[in-house]
Amino acid sequence: MTKRKESDHLERIAAQGCIACRKLGMGYRPAEAHHTRFAAGAGQRSGTWFCIPLCPEHHRLGKTAYHASPKRFEMMFGTEEALLDETLERCFK
User: Helix-strand-coil percent breakdown of the chain, rounded to 5?
Assistant: First the structure.
């Protein structure tokens, strides 16, 4: 995949707004791309096509952030696989 296509895809992901905030009924909140872990080895991140949109609070900063506690995050919002399916569905409507 070219760098341009990767960049375009990441922009489409982030433009959706945080998927966790949407599930909480908070509406649109700016997001950054979270590279899922399920499709990669230990300590690695997945490629560009395996990203979901998360705001900084749900990605890396808050108590319910994925990087603070992946298990807690998935109990609240669903698995990365399910969130990725939802994200890709919204991307390619």
Answer: 50, 10, 40
